[in-house]
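Q: What does the assembled structure look like for these inputs?
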Amino acid sequence: MILRLIERRPSYGYELLTELEKTSSRFFSLREGTLYPILYRLEDDGLIHAQWSVGKGRNTPKKVYAITPQGREALARLRSLWEQFSKSVNSILSEEDSIP
Amino acid sequence: MTKDQYLKTVSAALRRSGMKRKIRRRLETDLSSDFTARLEKGESSEEIIRTMGTPDQLAAEFLKENSSAKARTPVEKAFLISGSVFAVITAACGVWIGADQLLISRFQTKFFNPGTTLNNTTVIGGADGPTAVFITVHRPEWMIFLSAFFLIACIVSFILYFRSRRNKK
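A:
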């Protein structure tokens, strides 16, 4: 999910938190202490990289995370995996109970 | 509390938690950047601090999600250093005992017939009659006990160190 949000737009930490909360209708509500370990794992695996954005006007430069080409490939694989997983789970859950 | 005060407290809490320095610096940079960005968006310091959590909460949450971020605590460092020191002392005692025994056996073969049992006193004969030569042989029993003590201390230190690391995970 974090990777997908970063793919849509390079973002800094707090932006990702607010975007995640907004798009999940407050279902996923994380804090910095939970978000940053995820970002650092993604960065150490080469799926995202950090860069300093140029400050506009009076705004100071911010540290933003952007997706890498490997990140895009990984995201595509994970998406496919999730689609299979959710399809299988939905299929099982929506099965009618068998009549004994 | 201002941004700088909060970030200083966070930094101290992260150090206390035993977080590795490299990861701590990375997190401090990100938190500072986020804090500044939120201030520029018009949020107050109090609101930002409320949502980020107290410094200890923040450190605990981070380490819960990233257990490999924790470095050795001062206690663990003490166990590791004491274990290593005891290991060196034990090895030194062992070498000393070994060298001692080697010197004695060399002395023995040089001055006495092979097979002579080592006593603390030996009598050799001279041209003008027997001459008693008292040889005091240093028996390193106390060294053996000392090296056994340091060996046990070394083993205990490493056991405590590994238990401490295992309990942390």
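The mean pLDDT of chain B is 73.
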